[in-house]
Design goal:
Helix content: 10-25%
Structural class: alpha+beta
Bound molecules: ligand V0V, cobalt (II) ion
Distance between the termini: 8 Å
Order of helices and strands: EHEEEHEHEEE
Number of helices: 3
Number of domains: 1
CATH superfamily: 2,3-Dihydroxybiphenyl 1,2-Dioxygenase, domain 1
Strand order of the largest sheet: 2-3-4-1-5-8-7-6
CATH class: Alpha Beta
Strand content: 35-45%
Shape: globular
CATH topology: 2,3-Dihydroxybiphenyl 1,2-Dioxygenase, domain 1
Radius of gyration: 15 Å
Length: 143
């Protein structure tokens, strides 16, 4: 059902400083940036490696654009750090249904718009051992 770690989402107060840290320290480069109004974030995707399933693995650096957004709330409470993990799948709706059938709360009735034209849905962290978990279907992913 899941074929890769699509990304690890990291909450940053200052996206440019976060990008610079990952570039300088590890040599990761930004492959994509965008603003997702619905999710209330400005984000940078740093590609770590390609996978053989049509997707890839990234670090996703996230800076809030609104005080009432999930990432802003997270920063207020916890400071900077790992915000969520995301698993890649070729069928996000089917995967969400299967996971939901296990009693895990699926936070989005329908998949929403994610980074780089992906479709995404979130699972409640309280049902996932304290880990906010995202499911991602890449736009033309076969896996
Ligand atoms: C909140 N909690 C977390 C958490 N955020 N636990 C682990 N990791 C996190 N990131 C805990 C929090 O400490 C509370 O625990 C409890 O959940 C309720 O949190 P809250 O903030 O008071 O309550 P809510 O219900 O307002 O918000 C929590 C949820 C919300 C998870 C429902 O943040 C959400 O809907 N997140 C999904 C959307 C999202 O995060 N978007 C940003 C990334 P205690 O105190 O009760 O024990 S956008 C993205 O990744 C994109 C665009 C992409 O990948 O393409
Ligand atoms: Co994400």
């Amino acid at each position: 059902m899941f074929t890769r770690i699509d990304h690890v989402g990291i909450a940053c107060r200052d996206l440019d400083a976060g990008v610079e840290f990952y570039r300088r320290t590890y040599g990761f480069e930004v492959t994509h940036t965008e603003i997702n109004e619905e999710q209330g974030v400005r984000e940078a995707m740093l590609r770590v490696n390609g996978t053989d399933d049509g997707g890839a693995s990234y670090l996703q650096l996230l800076e809030p654009i609104r005080a009432d957004s999930p990432v802003a709330k997270f920063l207020d409470r916890n400071g900077e750090g790992v915000h969520h993990i995301a698993f890649g799948t070729s069928d996000v709706a089917g995967a969400a249904e299967a996971v939901g059938a296990q009693g895990v709360r699926v936070l989005d009735a329908e998949p929403r718009a994610g980074s780089m034209d992906s479709r995404i849905t979130f699972l409640h962290p309280k049902d996932c051992g304290g880990v906010l978990t995202e499911l991602v279907q890449a736009p033309d992913s076969s896996g």
